[in-house]
Q: What sequence folds into this?
């Protein structure tokens, strides 16, 4: 399993939007739920295309809310958000699915569909994108092998261990070769060894050009990723003392 | 256009539950059964009213209040009148038998002035007033009345019943549609997590809707056909001998067109349920981002 897990990702060589300097741009963004207080306020930052970011901050700082804005599960209540060079904060909802297909999301609670097999869970993004059974068979098998679950293809999530579910969730998040990968506390439910493997996976994806944003409390994870940048949220606001997040330097494509 | 009906087994597995479970097919089957019987009754009533109207629209009665002394001459004169196609004098014995219902034995009295009655049919456009004038030269008190006028109240009742049947069919269709809306909302609640995941990975509302639409369509089709089949069995049993079949349908029979309409009803109900279900699901999905 280890060899497969730590080997090359299956879909190397994909062309990307290398000319796009920032994959995400937040301009004076604020978010509140209903009539409550703002959980995010005055967020101004850019995520460089191909960058690797850790999103940190104490519990309740707004990390999950910020990720929701990034993977288009939530609209800002004020300000503007540009993703992939397109202004999407007020885009009609019919316009969002093509952008969502460019984003892979790893949830802390995996969010696997319980009545579908591991194979079908991983295949879901490809089916949604219109792939036929014949077209997706190869990539999904390859992805299952890559995450070391080739022999668990027909297993349903309740019969998988936490680590196995985590890998299925990651395989689902990356199978459609996302331009942006968002992970919310991906190591929250796994042991240190699994956390190390996850980090290996994320850096491998990042090397292929995927912009990675990982929300975590895990200091070890951050320190083990040289070159990654940190976004620190505190009480809904962004700490950016160096200004690097407002004007990020160009990254590799 | 109907591609959503033919999805892969994997897409079918997305909703996780087996088909034909839950109350929807049963509700639709009951609606379909009721619609079938009511529509058949309405169509039979229409058929009966049509037959009756066709039978009497050119039929008239000539009545001579003071008896039939000149009945033979009157009949001969009417036969010779232009436009008259057939003629039938009601025998005096039959008139007395009819009067006997009210008068009893007195109806047989020789002193009783028994009115004479002659029924006759004419070609369309015949001058009835001219025939009446002709009859009055032989029997001065002769009066002609149209059969249609006499049965008009009955025809009005039958037409009202037809509209009532039509209204009931529409109401039952609306009730079936409402049941589908409730079922669709229930299904959306049950599968909310799956829908959220699908939306999150870029599924469009239409893609999600197609999954539900297919299930609703199949549930509705099975329910409608089962209900209609049960309705057809009941209609067949009624038509093949039950004595009250005539009372139920007014003695009318169903034409080929009526049978085609009845045959199409379950499919119409399926289309209605599918369309309403699709609208309900799309509307509910639009409430989310």
A:
């Amino acid at each position: 399993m280890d060899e497969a897990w730590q080997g090359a990702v299956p879909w190397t060589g994909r062309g990307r939007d290398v000319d796009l300097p920032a994959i995400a741009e937040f301009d004076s963004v604020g978010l509140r739920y209903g009539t409550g207080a703002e959980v995010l306020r005055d967020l101004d930052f850019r995520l460089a295309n191909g960058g690797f970011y850790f999103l940190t901050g104490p519990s309740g700082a707004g990390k999950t809310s910020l990720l929701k804005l990034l993977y288009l599960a939530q609209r800002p209540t004020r300000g503007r958000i540009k993703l992939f060079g397109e202004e999407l904060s007020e885009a009609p909802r019919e316009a969002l699915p093509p952008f969502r297909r460019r984003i892979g999301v790893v949830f802390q609670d995996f969010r696997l569909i319980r009545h579908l097999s591991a194979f079908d869970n991983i295949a879901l993004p490809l089916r949604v994108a219109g792939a036929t059974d014949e077209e997706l068979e190869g990539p999904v098998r390859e992805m299952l092998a890559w995450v070391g679950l080739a022999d668990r293809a027909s297993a349903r999530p309740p019969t998988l261990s936490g680590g196995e579910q985590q890998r299925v969730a990651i395989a689902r998040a990356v199978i459609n070769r996302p331009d942006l990968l968002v992970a919310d506390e991906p190591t929250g439910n796994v042991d240190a060894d699994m956390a190390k493997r996850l980090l290996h996976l994320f850096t491998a994806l990042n090397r292929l050009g995927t912009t990675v944003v990982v929300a975590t409390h895990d200091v070890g994870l951050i320190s083990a990723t040289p070159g990654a940048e940190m976004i620190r949220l505190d009480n809904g606001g962004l700490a950016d003392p160096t200004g690097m997040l407002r004007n990020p330097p160009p990254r590799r494509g | 256009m109907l591609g959503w009906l033919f999805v892969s087994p994997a897409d079918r597995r997305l909703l996780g539950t087996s088909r034909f479970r839950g109350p929807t097919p049963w509700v639709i089957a009951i609606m379909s059964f009721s619609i079938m019987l009511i529509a058949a009754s309405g169509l039979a009533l229409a058929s009966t009213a049509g037959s009756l109207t066709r039978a009497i629209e050119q039929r008239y009665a000539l009545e001579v209040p003071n008896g039939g002394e000149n009945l033979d001459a009157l009949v001969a004169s009417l036969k010779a009148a232009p436009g008259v196609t057939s003629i039938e004098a009601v025998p005096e014995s039959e008139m007395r038998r009819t009067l006997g219902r009210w008068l009893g034995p007195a109806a047989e009295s020789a002193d009783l002035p028994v009115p004479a009655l002659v029924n006759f049919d004419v070609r369309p456009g015949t001058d009835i007033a001219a025939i009446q004038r002709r009859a009055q030269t032989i029997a001065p008190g002769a009066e002609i009345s149209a059969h249609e006028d006499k049965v008009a109240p009955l025809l009005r009742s039958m037409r009202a019943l037809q509209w009532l049947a039509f209204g009931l069919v529409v109401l039952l269709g609306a009730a079936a549609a409402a049941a589908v809306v409730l079922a669709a909302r229930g299904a959306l609640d049950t599968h909310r997590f799956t829908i959220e995941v699908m939306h999150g990975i870029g599924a469009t509302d239409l893609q999600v809707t197609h999954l539900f639409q297919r299930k609703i369509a199949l549930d509705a089709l099975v329910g409608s056909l089962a209900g209609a089949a049960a309705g057809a069995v009941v209609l067949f049993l009624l038509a093949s001998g039950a004595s009250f079949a005539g009372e139920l349908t007014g003695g009318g029979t169903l034409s080929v067109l009526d049978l085609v309409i009845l045959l199409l009803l379950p499919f119409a109900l399926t289309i209605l349920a599918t369309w309403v279900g699709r609208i309900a699901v799309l509307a509910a999905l639009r409430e989310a981002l």
Observations:
- The mean pLDDT of chain B is 85.
- The interface with chain A takes residues 8, 10-11, 13-14, 16, 193-194, 196-205, 207, 286, 289 of chain B (CB under 8 Å).
